[in-house]
Amino acid sequence: MNAPRPSRIVLHKKSQELEVGYEDGTTYRLPAEYLRVHSPSAEVQGHGKPVLIGGKRNVAINEVQGVGRYAVKLVFNDGHDTGLYSWDVLADLGQNHAQYWATYEQRLADMRMSRDSDVVKLAALQPKKYIPKPPPAS
After folding, report:
1. Is 8-125 in CATH node 3.90.180.10?
2. Where do the Gamma-butyrobetaine hydroxylase-like N-terminal domain residues begin and end (predicted)?
């Protein structure tokens, strides 16, 4: 991707949004919950299959730390601090915010999880019963 380096990154403590701005005037306001559940860390991204994280509606960002000239590290109040948000990752999360958020909410619904709880309801894990259709009448 090779996204440009942001010209400003501001943590808005009251709204818990990370504002990422660029020289061309593009600005993204990314909620802490969105950033937490889409963390680029191995814990969340897994090994090729992202892990669904629920129960983060009230998560907050405690600190934003610069990492060289290529990323920021976000320290969340739930103890998560292993994701490095490169400029490419931040640009991708900003550009695709609506789509990624809709997909996340659908995945939560499919697993009967919520933004308020990370508990998976057992019914979501039960296999669906297969009832074969009778053969067509001849």
Report:
1. no
2. 9-90
